[in-house]
Amino acid sequence: MLILQCPYCGVQADETELSAGGETHIERHGPGSSDEAFEEYLFARENPFGVHFERWRHSYGCGKWFHAARNTVTLEVYGTYPAQTTEPPADIRKRISGVAPGWTWRFLG
Ligand SMILES: [Zn+2]
Question: Is the pTM of this model over 0.85?
Fold first, then answer.
């Protein structure tokens, strides 16, 4: 079972208390952008076999959205952080590099 610590209230919440929000750190495109960029923003999502960055909501707790970095194969959680964070914190990226050398993620590489 997936267990994530809510970065706001500190609760170790199992997946029955959470709602998945899909991939996070997506570059937003709107009016004025190219058709290709807008199409990618709307429909293209990563579905990696390994390191993944996701949005989760503590639905049956404090109700707030947050980000989680985890491994989709091992279910190892590298960390959670507030939804207002525009990219994964350095400590989480360092932790991932320690266990998954050479990992990449879109713009993070
Ligand atoms: Zn919470």
Answer: yes
